[in-house]
């Protein structure tokens, strides 16, 4: 009889423990699945108009290196500018062969990549000798200042250059040898500038904007993984002006040029933010974007010759 009571008591204890533990495990799982919040904090602006070193006349693109230094290509003056993270001018240089600097990227070793559609090429400036030590990577494409060439450099040294007029991507290895060319899926030979620019993600995929307002996620061989698009109730994006990919997020401007959208690289929405308090009201060209390794969003406000900075709070 005593043994039966002891067994019954033990069973009741086990049931009580399970009933208490069950809800706790379910709640923990729910908390793990809850998305982490994302917010932007405006931290200031810098830049001044002019056609000299450290001044912005008609800036076209922006990039950041591993230290948070900011690089801007200005086709109006031919200058490549380097600024400290808070806007102090560090270096400005021109190169006689560089006619129309357009898209700019910086690799993890500090080399600067600048496209020149007027020459149909990419200039690569090496660290420690900016403006003096460089290589010109010529493309088999039609040279035209009205074309759009964008460049993205992967961590493994692959260089991806997208030609908007030809709707073709040229991929070079770290030795500057052409490895392959590919055409985006759905390309129409009669369409002009239907795709671009191109960005590289740390996940090993490439991201390509298109004129429909969507962003294609591609393998580095050019195979489509998915197409990332605004939600049904969202306005059209404008990735062709320049978007940014950082970690697992994509930063892209609205077609009105004022609203920023942040989505994951799988297309899940993270944040919508109106930048009108800093950019100003009214429709405007969508500004080029960059994200520094210090988790700061850089917005190149070309009409006002300035850069706006936002801290990304996860």
Write out the strand line-up for the largest beta sheet, numbering strands in chain order.
1-24-23-22
Based on Cα principal axes, name the global outline.
Answer: globular
What's the architecture, going by CATH? 6 Propeller
How far the N terminus sits from the C terminus, by CA atoms, comes to 61 Å
Contiguous low-pLDDT stretches (5 residues minimum) are 1-35
Summed up, the helix count is 2
Report the C-alpha radius of gyration, rounded: 24 Å
What portion of the residues fall into strands of 2 or more residues?
35-45%
**Beta strand count:** 24
CATH topology annotation: Neuraminidase
Count of all domains: 1
Give the mean pLDDT: 88
CATH class: Mainly Beta
Main beta sheet, described? 4 strands, antiparallel
- The CATH superfamily appears as TolB, C-terminal domain
Order of helices and strands: HEEEEEEEEEEEEEEEEEEEEEHEEE
Q: What portion of residues is helical?
A: 10-25%
Structural class: mainly beta
């Amino acid at each position: 009889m005593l043994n039966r009571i002891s067994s019954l008591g033990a069973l009741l204890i086990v049931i009580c423990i399970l009933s208490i533990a069950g809800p706790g495990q379910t709640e923990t799982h729910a908390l793990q699945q809850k998305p982490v919040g994302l917010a932007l904090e405006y931290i200031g602006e810098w830049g001044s108009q002019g056609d000299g070193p450290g001044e912005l006349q008609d800036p076209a693109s922006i990039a950041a290196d591993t230290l948070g230094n900011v690089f801007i290509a200005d086709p109006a003056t031919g200058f490549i500018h380097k600024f400290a993270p808070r806007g102090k001018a560090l270096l400005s240089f021109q190169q006689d062969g560089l006619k129309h600097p357009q898209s700019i990227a910086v690799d993890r070793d500090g080399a600067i990549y600048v496209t020149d559609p007027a020459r149909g090429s990419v200039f690569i400036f090496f660290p420690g000798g900016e403006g003096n030590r460089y290589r010109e990577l010529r493309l088999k494409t039609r040279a035209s200042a009205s074309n759009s060439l964008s460049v993205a450099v992967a961590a493994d040294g692959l260089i991806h250059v997208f030609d908007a007029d030809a709707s073709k991507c040229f991929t070079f290895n770290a030795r500057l040898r052409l490895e392959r060319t590919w055409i985006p899926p759905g390309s129409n030979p009669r369409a002009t500038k239907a795709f671009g620019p191109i960005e590289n993600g740390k996940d090993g995929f490439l991201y390509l904007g298109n004129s429909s307002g969507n962003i294609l996620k591609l393998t580095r061989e050019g195979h489509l993984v998915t197409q990332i698009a605004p939600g049904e109730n969202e306005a059209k994006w404008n990735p062709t002006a320049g978007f940014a990919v950082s970690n697992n997020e994509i930063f892209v401007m609205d077609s009105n040029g004022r609203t920023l959208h942040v989505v994951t690289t799988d297309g899940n929405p993270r944040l919508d933010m109106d930048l009108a308090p800093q950019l100003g009201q009214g429709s405007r060209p969508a500004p080029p974007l960059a994200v520094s390794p210090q988790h700061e969003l850089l917005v190149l406000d070309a009409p006002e010759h300035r850069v706006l900075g936002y801290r990304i709070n996860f």
